[in-house]
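Reviewers of the previous submission asked for a worked example of the structure-prediction workflow described in the proposal, so we include one complete record here. The input consisted solely of the amino acid sequence. No template or homolog information was supplied to the procedure at any stage.
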Amino acid sequence: MQGVDNDKILYRKAVAIRRDFERRLIEPGLLEKIYTVYNPALTNPESFLATATQLFPALNCGLASVYLQTVLGKGEIIHGTYKSEGHTFLAIKNLIIDITADQFGGPKVYVGTLRWPWQKPGPMNRTITGGR
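From that input alone, the workflow returned the following structure tokens.
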């Protein structure tokens, strides 16, 4: 039962973080700091963040995943796919947390097991049928 409770807590936190992104309530300096550590090749973080906040959720999967990881204090950033699109999401143990899949027609917030249409990269990557 504790696992289900933890999943619900993670879901509520993910919904709140998503809402903060939508309302542009996250401090830009923090986003810049954590995202430039995640992506040191980024040459103009201020411009990137200004554009990203305007386009949310589109093109925000990496930024959102890094922020989720920072707020939750755990997890692994996964560079995988959603359907056939390159996509980034957070993995914590056997769960993934994704607050930007709706840019590809998916849910606004997903906390659950890795299943199609999400996929991790690698040789063991295979399509799982029968998703909801």
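The CA atoms of residues 18 and 99 lie 6 Å apart. We consider this example representative of the routine output the project will generate in years two and three.
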